[in-house]
Write a structure and sequence with these properties.
heterodimer; A: mainly alpha; 6 helices; 2 strands; B: mainly alpha; DNA-binding (chain A); Cro/C1-type_HTH (chain A)
């Protein structure tokens, strides 16, 4: 089971909202695919709930990405910054 | 095999969008405050009755009105927290189960204290007044409040729910 972070340092950062927007997926659709309540996806996106490993892996599988591309213990750089960094 | 929580009839009722108004923080907190006020009023009425007239018609009427008032108040409180204390674990996802466990743990000691007070208070009241009925009423009220502490904690502390799930 996941848990609520006790402090900012304890928080798990994620890119779910960006990925949902990119793929045109609603919270409800993602929630149904990974087997949770739509509100839970919202809490994870807001950083108010750190998902269990199983849920994080199911979300990663849904987007077809490695789990570390979606979740991180450190704040994630924006995708535009990452693209600029990779552009020669 | 499905990984989604079971959509029982009870779960569907608590998740019904028509009750979204009940899940807003001000409504949740007002429901908690109203229920605590109701319990305090009934405890005070029991003690006043024990100290003055003993078991009487007015006390019976107050008690009946209080218990009838408890029904809609508790329904509102349950709707505001999606009934996580009354549903089976398999109808909830991991976050809902975590919320429930967090509140149980947070109120474990106060609930123990209230249960002890229920027993000690009832015994003391009967010893002092010979009113067995009133002693039972006091004990029942405090025992019920101990069971409701987790509901009150969750309804008071739960974060606001994220906006529209279809976004």
């Amino acid at each position: 089971m996941g848990r609520q972070p006790k402090s900012d340092a304890d928080r798990v950062h994620d890119r779910i909202a960006v990925l949902r927007a990119d793929r045109g997926v609603s919270r409800r659709e993602l929630a149904e695919a990974v087997g949770v309540h739509p509100q839970t996806i919202g809490y994870v996106e807001r950083g108010e709930y750190s998902p269990s490993l199983a849920l994080a892996l199911r979300i990663a599988r849904f987007f077809g990405l490695p789990v570390e591309a979606i979740f991180s213990l450190d704040p994630l750089p924006s995708l535009s910054q990452e693209l600029l960094r990779r552009t020669p | 095999m499905s990984i989604s929580p079971d959509q029982t009839y009870l779960a569907r009722t608590f998740d019904d969008g028509r009750y979204a108004w009940a899940r807003r923080r001000p409504v949740r907190r007002r429901a908690v405050a109203a229920q605590i006020a109701l319990f305090l009023a009934l405890v005070v009425a029991t003690l006043i009755c024990a100290a003055t007239t003993g078991w009487s018609t007015w006390f019976f009427l107050v008690w009946t009105a209080g218990m009838l008032g408890f029904i809609p108040l508790h329904s509102l409180l349950n709707l505001s927290i999606r009934g996580v204390f009354d549903r089976s674990s398999r109808s909830m996802d991991e976050h809902q189960q975590e919320l429930r466990e967090r509140s149980y743990v947070a109120v474990a000691w106060p609930a123990w204290g209230l249960n002890f007070t229920a027993f000690a208070g009832a015994v003391t009241l009967v010893a002092l007044t010979d009113e067995i009925g009133l002693g039972l009423c006091l004990g029942f009220l405090l025992w019920m409040a101990a069971g409701l502490l987790a509901y009150w904690h969750l309804a008071w502390t739960a974060p606001d729910e994220p906006a529209d799930a279809d976004l």
